[in-house]
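so my prof wants the structure for this chain in the tokens format not the other one, which i didnt know existed until like an hour ago. anyway here's the sequence
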Amino acid sequence: MSDFFQFEADFVESLRCIPMQVRYKLDTCGVKLKLQHWHQFTQGERQSLVDLPCVMEGEVVSYREHLQRIVVEHTGHAASDLPIEVCPAWMDETAIPVSVQEKATETGVALTLEQWRSLLPLQRFVLLKLSRSGHENSNFLPAMQEFQLV
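here's what i got, hopefully its the right format
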């Protein structure tokens, strides 16, 4: 899981922004990490958040504890909780979220359910995050291209 997406290439070497795979883990473990927190972490701490697994129940708990420990060390208080979705939209292979479908259409792409099903959960997560209003969406089309949907 430590592979980064090509559309993140301009910042992943320095880890100056939170990579999508870490954002995925944040949603999985229920922590709202702010970019200002991320910027206070050492390179080694950022890399640990990239490298540590966060899939199985025990891993999710350990990841959350590790992350909160780092946040507290740097800020003096824990990061906010993020509600953990029981059935997140990126895990649902049976329906393309409206925001993803609208953003795809806006970029001139007709995303099919077959294509949606062919994606890994992390890829679906990425498209969902990049399609939400209020998010900087410039990487939506590059992500679609990288995932061979265009």
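also thought this was worth mentioning. The mean pLDDT is 92.
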